[in-house]
Amino acid sequence: MAPYELQLIPAAETRYLRHVVLRPHQRPEELVYPGDEAPDTVHFGLYVDEEQHGVASLYREPRPGTKSTTEWRLRGMAVLASNQGRGYGAALLQACIDHAARQGGTRLWCNARTTASGFYKRLGFAVEGAEFELPGIGPHYLMWRPL
Length: 147
Prior knowledge:
Helices cover 20% and strands 37% of the residues. By secondary structure, the chain is α+β, with helices and mostly antiparallel strands. The protein has three helices and seven strands, in the order βαβββαβαββ. It has one domain (5-109): Gcn5-related N-acetyltransferase (GNAT) (Aminopeptidase), CATH 3.40.630. Keywords: Acyltransferase, Transferase. It holds the Pfam family Acetyltransf_1.
């Protein structure tokens, strides 16, 4: 048996970890992201012994300033702090990469926290543009990788 299990989950099941890991200062309604319920959107949950330890959401969405229909956006990826460094984030990201590629995707992008940019670089992402601030959340880079 694998040390974890990946599952497709409804958007509502991403919100606890979005809150605890990414945005503890936000109200529950602020953890509902545009596109969470879109037909192409998928949400992955990573479970260990039936307990959720990570989530990631994937949206068919072009990068800002483009109109591509083959780009996918990673958003709301979160792994409990006590479980980071165990490969769970990489497993969630690979599930997103695989899904987007199966759907004919050509590029995966995200707004990555500056503190997580090394993680994304190790997994094939490149920085595009300068660091920017998401109000109330902190410094980020737009990062992407080909599929």
